[in-house]
């Protein structure tokens, strides 16, 4: 029985097992830090700033969508939506005619 414990101890002391234990501990600490900040630190700051709820705040997309022409066209055979540059339909595998100017 002592041989089993001695072998297990030698295995556990090797670097890989110790590194794994440290990684799990650090990962758990970061998860708890997020909870600490969102549940304990931010509510009093929100009260000081006039009852601001940080849970509903997020950054909006600052760049407006580019206004351009259509980016897709329909397959003339099966009406599947395809990219403009497609040369073959992925659904019915038919060859597509070249798109004309102004045609989606």
Q: Care to describe what's here?
A:
The chain is mainly alpha-helical. The protein has 2 domains: 50 residues; 27 residues. Helix content is 44%, strand content 6%. It is built from 2 helices and 2 strands; from the N terminus they run H-H-E-E. A two-stranded antiparallel ribbon has the order 1-2. The chain is flat. The model has no long low-confidence stretch (mean pLDDT 80).
State the low-pLDDT regions, or none. none
Structural class: mainly alpha
Side by side, the strands of the main sheet go: 1-2
Report mean pLDDT, rounded to a whole number.
Answer: 80
* Helix proportion range: 40-55%
The backbone outline, from C-alpha atoms, is flat
Instruction: Report the span from N to C terminus.
Output: 77 Å
Largest sheet: 2 strands, antiparallel
Tally of contiguous helical segments:
2
The tally of beta strands, per DSSP, is 2
Number of domains: 2
**What is the beta-strand fraction?**
5-15%
Order of helices and strands: HHEE
Query: How big is the Rg?
Result: 30 Å
């Amino acid at each position: 029985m002592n041989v089993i414990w001695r072998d297990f101890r030698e295995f556990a002391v090797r670097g890989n097992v110790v590194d794994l234990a440290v990684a799990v501990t650090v990962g758990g600490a970061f998860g708890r830090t997020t909870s600490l900040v969102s549940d304990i630190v931010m509510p009093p700051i929100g009260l000081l700033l006039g009852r601001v709820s940080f849970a509903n705040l997020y950054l909006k997309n600052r760049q407006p969508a580019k206004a351009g022409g259509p980016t897709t066209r329909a397959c003339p055979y099966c009406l599947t939506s395809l990219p403009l540059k497609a040369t073959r339909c992925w659904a019915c595998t038919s060859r597509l005619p070249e798109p004309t100017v102004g045609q989606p």
